[in-house]
Structures are given as structure tokens and as C-alpha cells.
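Student: Please help interpret what follows.
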Amino acid sequence: MSASENEYESFAEWKVRRIPEPIKEPRETYGQRLKDWALSSIGIDGTAKELFLYLENCKAATLEDLAKHVNKEPKEVLELVDLLYSTGLIERLGKAYYVRERLSTSIVGRLIPRITESLRNIAKTESRARSDATYYCTMRGRAFSDVGSAIAACKEISRLGGSPIARVVGVHSYNDETVEVE
């Protein structure tokens, strides 16, 4: 592990793999193989997968129940339960953990938005830092979070003799517009 990997504290970590879909035959086991495939595709393997499947089949379980089921220490199981929780596959109510929705619903409703939001924050932070360093010198490719800032930047570029081109390239959560200057 390199020094840069230890440099930042990780709040959540998601893994997405692109693996071939299982073959449909034999039909009797296709549903279970498809669920295993989906869980593996989002980085849920081994004991974490076993815990998810157990929670899916029972109404709810405490950390101690889960530790007994997989024959591990509660501290070890807590890390795996945290993974399932941060992925959005399970919920917690008091000391009990449970599966609230079907796997596909959790992926679409929780995991995808969490990953998307993280990627948007990364891009926005990098763009802001990149543009703040040399505010009007390197406007090309800068994404603005509001139209007013983009207009001010375009005026400044024009004042300096440039001819900016502004275009809407995405959706901003506050006003449904993000402007990028070319």
C-alpha cells in the first residue's frame, strides 16, 4: 500500500465490477446465481454476502446474532455490516439490522445515488480548486455552480480580449444548471 493510499480517511468505499452475467441454465438455480452475481458485481463477497443473504431471509438480527451465524467475533462482523450499510443494502433500527428492500431497488435507490453524489463532489471540488488557483487565466473547462458566476467570468474574459463560449453541460442540484466556459 502506497503512502498516498493512507493519506486520506475513508468514510465509505464502494467497489463496482463488470463481470459476465451468469448463464440461464439450469433455470432452478438461476435466481440465486443472479443474486450472487449482483452482489459480487458491487463488491459484496464472502462473509459479507453470507450476512446479506441471512438478513434477507430473517426479519432482523443483532450484531451478536450475525456474529454467531458466521462464527466470527462481533468486531469483525461490524466491519462487514458497515460495508452493507454504506452500500445501502441494509438498514439499522436500534441494535437490529434488516433488509428493507429488494436488492435491485437498493442498488438503484441508494447505491447509485451515493456513488454519483461522491463523483460529483470530487469533480466539483477539483474544478473549484483548479480554477481558484488561476481564476481568470485558465477558464477553459471550468464548471460553475451558478449562472451568475459564469456570466461574471465571461465578462472578465471579454474585458481581457478573449471570446468565451458558455454552454450548459449538466444539472446542478440547486438551480438545474451548470455552466462550463470554453
About this structure: Helices lie at 3-6, 30-41, 46-57, 63-70, 74-87, 103-133, 147-159. The radius of gyration is 23 Å.
